[in-house]
Design brief:
The complex is a heterodimer of chains A (about 270) and B (about 400). Chain A has a single domain, classed as Thiolase/Chalcone synthase (Peroxisomal Thiolase, Chain A, domain 1). Chain A has 10 helices and 8 strands. An 8-stranded mixed sheet of chain A has the order 3-2-4-5-1-6-8-7. In chain A, a hairpin with a 2-residue loop joins strand 7 and strand 8. In chain A, helix 1 crosses helix 10 and helix 3 crosses helix 6. Chain A is globular, with a radius of gyration of 18 Å. Chain B has about 400 residues and is an alpha/beta fold. The longest helix of chain B has 15 residues. The chains are: A alpha+beta (about 270), B alpha/beta (about 400). Strand 3 of chain A pairs antiparallel with strand 6 of chain B, so a sheet runs across the interface.
């Protein structure tokens, strides 16, 4: 990557076990509040039509809440905002139900379960909820999914000179898949990234490849979350953002390629 | 956007392995579809199965990736000298300067479907040999491809259902034009599995016979499988040979309408086609062939047909090639991009095996049989549509260099 990718961070959305939103995460990073572990709280998807709202899965609620929170804290309008969704997996509970049904004699699966099985289901519901017809990318790079999403979102910002909403999220599988892929709970982060500084910009972000090791967190519970949840590989960057630090931070991507993110607060 | 060069490309489908077999079958109007005899599946429908996937043996150091989807990935990479061309590019630019962008809808889910049959009776646990990351996960084909080709740069899987491997061209083109990469492997691989066969059947979207896109009696899709790849580089008009195939424009949009039904007037489809024309700096009149998404469901073909008519009128030659290949889902976008490349280099417009009586409600210049372009207007620009569940639309425009 000869040329670094760059953008300005406007809105931030955040959600993790014990940290229901960005304000609570900032308070823990700053040492103002202690971290108290608890299951992830997911807000109801109010913007979906009633039928879709009733049946919305955990991963759909998660992605919608993250994206809306980030957009609320920016100048962007969700109805026109390009989006990049990135997740290490789709709806784990739905996947388990389909595979269990397909392992029986009666293989007739539910049509709703089938259309909800696509990796881009949360993105599809985002479109229905926001009525946005803007371009929408949906990525997966297993444990490297946050880095992949960041690279794609920054490329769109820079190439097309438009703001882009990045939503990185993961949710859990039930057993027996949980033993093979132990993501503990729902969690994720969202950023509105813009090509130019605005009154609501929080920081400038510049990304280039490196072969360094990723920064870890000197907080046992948060470091465990960083390692267990691909979207939370962003935590060292979020810590810098919360503390208003101006420095470079190395994030895990795809060995041997890692991402050096240089952050400059506004 | 700045044009991107397709240095080399390949496709494998139920029509056969490699460009020559695709080219010959498309010219002759052959279909690779057959009645469904896949695994234990008991559905009255037809499928497009690739022959020879089971014979593929992955290298010992990558055997944890062994599943139908990655065996087809390897088969595709080892066709038409594609893997060798990528290794040469890695030598030229550096292994960290060649990216991997692959599309899939279901990746290796078949491996999980089979593993669920072998769950422990006492604990319900999946068998020890089942590896989620290297088979089921949507990234596994990109991870496998990156390791197989010895690459060390950026990699990602796009999974937007049936538009997946069209959108990889857009993502890679952005990185190449920004200079963050010097070359990119793009493509798509999807393979037959129980989830998609029973899933499309549950939605009453599978045809009971071979699919017949844009036919007045069309009644659904024939699920297919396939692998298609292209090696992309920035276009340098001085070094690329005349007649090279170029990616000239990309357009992406969302329906914001329904999870599994297209917008009835094809509004999202039209937005994607308009964006692609704008990105290529072309007008609708410039386009000489459209490879339609044309799944053969009543809803898709009606909506897409309206969008194409509205934007291009009744004159532009167009066809869906899914009557030949079936619907390769997440691999369809890349496969049909390769078919557009073949149309441009061979000056042949593919027809639509299976389609007999065109739907009079969609009055397109639809090609039932393959033919050469009119002598007076050789094919310069070809457009390919790909649409997916979740309302994901992507349109690509290809052309040749002078």
């Amino acid at each position: 990557m000869n040329k670094p990718l760059q953008a300005w961070i406007e809105g931030v959305g955040f959600c993790a076990p014990g940290l229901p939103d960005w304000a609570s995460a900032e308070a823990v990073f700053k040492g103002a509040d202690p971290y108290v572990a608890s299951p992830t709280w997911l807000s109801p998807p109010d913007r979906l039509p009633p039928a879709e709202r009733r049946r919305a899965s955990r991963v759909v609620k998660l992605a919608l809440a993250l994206g809306l929170a980030a957009a609320e804290n920016s100048d962007a309008h969700v109805s026109t905002l390009a989006t990049v969704f990135t997740a290490s997996g789709a709806d784990g509970h739905n996947c388990d139900a389909l595979c269990a049904q397909l392992a029986t004699e009666d293989k007739h699966i539910s049509p709703t379960r089938f259309h909800n099985s696509v990796h881009n289901a949360p993105a599809g519901y985002w479109g229905i909820a926001t009525r946005s017809m803007a371009p929408c990318q949906v990525l997966c790079a297993y444990d490297a999914s946050f880095g992949a999403g960041l690279l794609e979102a920054l490329a769109q910002v820079q190439h097309d000179q438009v703001p882009v909403l990045l939503i990185a999220y993961d949710s859990e599988y039930p057993e027996p898949l949980f033993s093979k892929r132990p993501v503990p709970d729902c969690a994720g982060v969202a950023f509105v990234l813009s090509p130019a500084r605005t009154a609501r910009s929080r920081a400038h972000l510049l990304v280039q490849p490196t072969r360094d090791s990723a920064e870890t967190l000197n907080h046992e519970a948060l470091e465990t979350l960083r390692q267990q949840t691909p979207a939370l590989r962003a935590l060292p960057l979020l810590r810098c953002l919360a503390l208003g630090q101006s420095r470079a931070v190395c994030l895990d991507y795809l060995p041997p390629m890692q991402l050096e993110v240089s952050l400059s607060p506004c | 956007m700045k044009p991107i060069l397709l240095t080399t490309y390949t496709a494998t489908s139920c029509l056969g392995r490699g460009l020559d077999e695709q080219r010959q079958a498309l010219k002759e109007g052959k279909s690779g579809l057959k009645p469904c005899d896949f695994e234990s599946v008991d559905i009255e429908t037809w499928i497009g199965e690739v022959e020879g996937i089971e014979k593929q043996v992955l290298p010992p150091c990558l055997r944890q990736f062994n599943c139908r989807n990655n065996r087809l990935t390897q088969m595709g990479l080892e066709t038409d000298g594609f893997a060798e061309a990528v290794r040469l590019a890695a030598k030229k630019y550096g292994a960290d300067r060649v990216g991997v962008f692959l599309g899939t809808s279901t990746s290796g889910i078949l491996q999980t479907e089979l593993a669920y049959r072998q769950r422990s009776v006492s604990t319900g646990a999946l068998p020890d040999g089942f590896d989620y990351a290297t088979t089921q996960n949507s990234f596994s084909l990109a991870d496998f491809t990156r390791s197989y080709l010895g690459l060390e740069g950026m990699a990602m899987a796009v999974s937007t259902a049936c538009s997946s491997s069209a959108k990889v061209f857009a993502a890679a083109a952005r990185q190449l034009n920004l200079g963050t990469l010097d070359a990119a492997v793009v493509g798509g691989v999807d393979t037959l599995c129980l989830t998609t066969l029973y899933g499309f059947s549950s939605l009453q979207l599978t045809s009971s016979g071979p699919c017949k896109p844009y036919d007045v009696t069309r009644d659904g899709i024939s699920v297919g499988e396939g692998a298609a790849f292209a090696l992309l580089e920035r276009f340098d008009s001085w070094s690329a040979p005349a007649g090279s195939v170029l990616l000239l424009g990309v357009g992406e949009s969302s329906d914001a309408f329904h999870m599994s039904s297209p917008h009835p007037e094809g509004l999202g489809a039209r937005l994607a086609m308009e964006a692609a024309l704008q990105s290529a700096h072309l007008s609708a009149d410039d386009v000489g062939y459209i490879n339609l998404h044309g799944t053969s469901t009543p809803a898709n073909d009606a909506a897409e047909g309206l969008a194409v008519l509205g934007l291009f009128g009744e004159q532009v030659p167009c066809s869906s090639t899914k009557g030949a290949t079936g619907h390769a889902l997440g691999a369809a976008g890349a496969m049909e991009a390769v078919f557009c490349a073949l149309a441009l280099t061979d000056q042949w417009l593919p027809g639509s095996p299976g389609t007999k009586q065109l739907d009079p409600a969609v009055n397109l210049n639809y090609l039932l049989k393959s033919r050469r372009p009119n002598a007076a207007s050789p094919l310069r620009y070809a457009l390919s549509n790909s649409f997916g569940f979740g309302g994901s639309n992507c349109c690509l425009i290809f052309g040749t260099s002078l």
